[in-house]
């Protein structure tokens, strides 16, 4: 499932901690305002329990995991039953959480800074992309785009694009291959098994 790319991508999600983007507030303003809070957590602790709490409370509520799972499944989403869809969403969410925490504990650097590009959101617009560049003295700059949609009055992230590589598209190919081999239930078992290995590792 291209875990190296996924880890790099999800690790970059740290810049969206407490990304409570409300409809009345420009997304780029909210992204920029949250950087200091994230850095503060990283400077205090790399403990996985602390980072798990950070992810659950500050980051994950602002992601649309239903949309992300649907996009990652592509045409196969139509073939999944409602119980399978719920199981896929839970498993995919768990995979992203586990990968996020591992990447954050290993690669997060308090010396990192982020440049948030201005984002124009027109009245009535319900889709936006916040473009950012993560600067780190130890490596080349990384461009990260956050694709968001307006859901129930709040902006929700439904895809993350790192250096022009989409997280959703990255998973779509591997998910399709697994479904071809062992069906949707097989994919669910594969993701759940990977989640257990990450948790134990």
Q: Name the helix and strand elements from N-terminus to C-terminus, one letter apiece.
A: HHHHHEEEEEH
Tell me about the largest β-sheet: 5 strands, antiparallel
| Sequence of strands across the biggest β-sheet | 1-2-3-4-5
Poorly predicted sequence stretches spanning 5 or more consecutive residues: 17-23
Q: Which structural class matches the secondary elements?
A: alpha+beta
Count, helices: 6
Strand content: 15-25%
Distance between the termini: 17 Å
Helicity range: 40-55%
Return the average pLDDT rounded to an integer.
Answer: 79
Radius of gyration: 17 Å
Q: Please tally the β strands and state the result.
A: 5
Shape: globular
Overall description:
- The chain starts with a helix and ends with a helix.
- By secondary structure, the chain is of the alpha+beta class.
- About 3% of the residues have low confidence.
- The radius of gyration is 17 Å and the shape is globular.
- The protein is built from 6 helices and 5 strands; from the N terminus they run αααααβββββα.
- The protein has a 5-stranded antiparallel sheet with strand order 1-2-3-4-5.
